[in-house]
Design a protein that fits this description.
Blueprint: H1 22-35, H2 39-53, H3 55-64
Amino acid sequence: MSILKAPPKQSKNTLLQIRVEHELKATLDDYAEFLGSSTSYVVAEALKLLFRKDTEFKAWLAHHKPNGELQNRGEE
């Protein structure tokens, strides 16, 4: 058995550029610092949470997408 564990598989990433209010960016930076993570991580995790919790979106998605699936987008 190896001493070190293999790193987790890295998912494919894509660049997303957005414009937000200055105060929102400052709070995002603060939250990322609080977590000890990157702002990209915070945004990605917040979006995953939003998509999991929004029941109206899930219903819309089920109606508009085959089988209501997120087409291998990493959603659980």
